[in-house]
Design goal:
At1g61320/AtMIF1 LRR domain-containing protein; disordered C terminus; 6 helices; 24% helix; At1g61320/At1g61330-like; 2 domains; LRR_dom_sf
């Protein structure tokens, strides 16, 4: 009898199980959760490299968290699902989740090398209150992502209260300073959106357009945070140093700050607290000095 069979037997006899967490388990390729686990409400899977398929028949599963290699995740009963945190293409999440998991309240998407913009669709996330989108792109990606297409998520979420967009990629988008003609779409007032944070903010035109749209339509907005770098900072309790930045991010940061001053600051209502974060003067200043010095040397040669 193999490990997976033993594990399935264990699950089938754990009728009072409420939270199942698997961490770095390399012996499971297919995780099947039986209907008998009616008390199971939370499922967390971390870095299980061999896992390819997760099938859940647990009728009251309301929270699913996954980090690691992409898996095929299927749920028989989805009406109870309230919190979903997993790697997923933004395009697929917008197209499929409103109908598959209509009662979602918290959605965290981690997208790697996204190549298709978010579609404009009539379907709604009626109960969604908290949305986090993490975009990770490697240095080989050359196609710019249209951040303005994320308006589709905002317009589809009438109950949305918090929005976090983490952009972890190199600058390949058209800069607002290259083309300053902003796109506009019909107004769609949002009465619940109170907090918006964008990390990895740059001078990308579509990112500026998204921010301006939020300022023009989020009538209940209380705070807007624009951070020109991404990742943890040293002023947070558990971090001694900021997340290291590649040269391209530090080079782009001043342009991002200039875009905020030029196109965003004058659109911020007096009722909104705007916080703009520059690269850390302790962790990133030396790297910036080195980069500037190298650039100066290149020019003088």
């Amino acid at each position: 009898m193999g490990f997976e069979t033993h594990f399935e037997c264990l699950l089938s006899n754990s009728l009072a199980l409420e939270h199942l967490e698997l961490t770095q388990c390399t012996k499971i390729t297919c995780l099947k959760i039986p209907f008998a686990l009616q008390q199971l409400s939370r499922l967390s899977v971390f870095e299980c490299s061999s896992l390819k398929v997760i099938e859940s028949k647990a009728p009251n599963l309301s929270s699913f968290f996954h980090r690691g290699f992409r898996v095929n995740f299927s749920v028989v009963e989805t009406l109870q699902m309230k919190k979903l945190d997993m790697g997923c293409a933004i395009h697929d999440a917008r197209a499929n989740l409103p109908s598959i998991m209509p009662n979602l309240e918290t959605l965290v998407i981690e997208s790697v090398n996204e190549v298709v913009d978010a579609p404009m669709l009539p379907t709604k996330f009626i109960y969604l209150k908290h949305l986090t989108i993490r975009m990770i792109t490697g240095s080989t990606i050359s196609r710019p992502y249209d951040y303005f297409s994320l308006v589709s998520f905002i317009n589809a979420s009438p109950s949305l209260e918090t929005l976090i967009l983490n952009v972890t990629l190199r600058m390949v988008n058209e800069s607002i300073f290259t083309d300053s003609q902003l796109r506009h779409i019909p107004e769609h007032h949002h009465g619940h959106l109170k907090s918006v944070k964008i990390t990895g903010f740059s001078s990308a035109k579509s990112l500026v357009e998204l921010t301006c749209y939020i300022l023009n339509n989020a009538v209940s907005l209380e705070c807007l945070t624009l951070d020109t770098i991404y990742g943890p900072r040293c002023d947070q309790d558990k971090y001694r140093r900021c997340f290291p930045m590649i040269d391209g991010v530090l080079t782009e940061a001043p342009r991002g700050l200039a875009a905020i001053r030029t196109y965003i600051e004058d659109k911020v209502p007096s009722t909104v607290n705007l916080t703009v974060l520059e690269p850390c003067s302790r962790c990133h200043v030396r790297r910036r000095v080195q980069t500037s010095s190298q650039s100066d040397n290149a020019v003088s040669i």
